[in-house]
Amino acid sequence: MAIKYKDYYQILNVSRTASQEEIKQAYRKLARKYHPDVSGGAKGAEEKFKEVNEAYEVLKDPEKRRKYDSFGSGMEHDGNFRPPEGWQQQWGWQSGGGAGEDFDFNFEGTGFSDFFEAFFGSRGTAGRGPFGGTVHRGFSERGARQGRDLEADIMVTLEEAIHGSTRQVSVQRGDKAGGVETYQVKIPPGVRQGQRIRLAQKGEPGSGGARPGHLYLRVRLSEHPHFRVEGHDIYYDLLLAPWEAVLGARVEVPTPDGNAALKIPEGTVSGKTFRFRQKGLPQPGGVRGHMYAVVRIQVPKKVSAEERKLWEELSRISDFHPRRG
Fold first, then answer.
1. Of the candidates 198, 202, 229, 222, which has an alpha carbon nearest to the alpha carbon of residue 213?
2. 3-class secondary structure, 306
3. pLDDT at 181
4. Which three-class secondary structure state does DSSP give residue 105?
5. Cα dihedral angle (221, 223, 224, 228), rounded to 10 degrees?
6. Which residues contact 30 (CB under 8 A, 6 or more apart)?
7. How many C-beta neighbours within 10 Å does residue 89 have?
8. Alpha-carbon distances of 236 from 1, 31, 162, 179, 216, rounded to whole Å
9. Sign of CA dihedral 58, 62, 68, 72
């Protein structure tokens, strides 16, 4: 099955020598632009958001980025990707099947491209996949052969992880135009990174009367431009100006359930945490975790001449000395 190369650097609009911080900044800029909450359903925004998340999933991870860079441009004149000679040995990927057997099925609706699944996902139809995903085959006493389990990654948004959803996922086996099977996949509220969703007996058919294998979809939570997930809790960096922290303020804080008003007390220090109860991911039993807004005090990079005079006056009259005991 032909696999189209993905230029992740081009997708994020960064150079191949970009630093991790530059990659992170580029991702956040694009994720904010194409996130469903911001794009308002603009044409192509959802697919672009998935594409940006896929690129960041690879380039944010130093090991995956090194592997990706080892492919070079990976492009041939026909536009299809052909990995460089000896890449399997270099990255410890050992196939248990014949030539081409590891790329003999194609997924639609998971949020990830075939290129990602083949080299960075959990896909594998035989032996040990690129990052250790194992596919098992069982045998009965009469020699009947159990169908192989199939495994792929599925990109799940934070909103889906909180509220749950139903996704349509299609599987095409081999290069045949027909034979596409479509399943309704229920993503339960509270799903976590790395959790596997099983579609029983939707893997490869068995032989000799043995049962089919299963289809496993391993959850990868997509990065969110505002929030980060830790367990069942959500964290948000609350940026404050120095005067807001010193004098106090009332600010609007985004939460997964909409904006919430927050009173900032006088003398708030960087790192102070405010809790929003049950604004996180559902836990077993249905009770949601919390959201935490963590204060990060920002200073202006440039000031006008008038502002500089005011800051200099403040430094002259203030008796605050942060480095004194």
1. 202
2. helix
3. 87
4. strand
5. 80
6. 12, 13, 48, 52
7. 9
8. 42, 16, 16, 45, 31
9. positive
The predicted pLDDT at position 121 comes to 79
Strands in 188-232 per DSSP E: 196-199, 215-221, 227-230
The predicted-structure confidence for 139-192, as pLDDT tens digits, reads as follows 444 568 888 888 889 999 999 999 999 999 988 876 555 578 899 999 999 999
Mean pLDDT of 34-59: 84
Angle at which helix 45-59 crosses helix 62-70, to 10 degrees, equals 100
The answer to whether residues 115 and 125 touch, using CB atoms and an 8 Å cutoff, is no
Express each pLDDT in 266-301 by its tens digit.
999 999 999 999 999 999 888 999 999 999 999 999
Q: 6: which 2 tokens? A: 């993905």
Q: At what angle do helices 45-59 and 20-34 cross, to 10 degrees?
A: 160
Rounded to whole angstroms, the Cα distance separating 50 from 38 reads 14
* Cα gap 85→58, rounded to integer Å: 21
- 233-240/249-255 β-pairing: unpaired
Q: How far is CA 222 from the centre of its chain?
A: 3
Q: Can you list the positions of beta strands (E) in the chain?
A: 105-108, 150-156, 165-173, 180-187, 196-199, 215-221, 227-230, 233-240, 249-255, 258-264, 273-276, 291-297
pLDDT band of 315, cuts 50, 70, 90? very high
Write down how long the chain is: 325
Q: How far apart are CA 247 and CA 264, in angstroms?
A: 9
Q: Model pTM?
A: 0.78
DSSP category for residue 96: S
3-state SS class at 255: strand
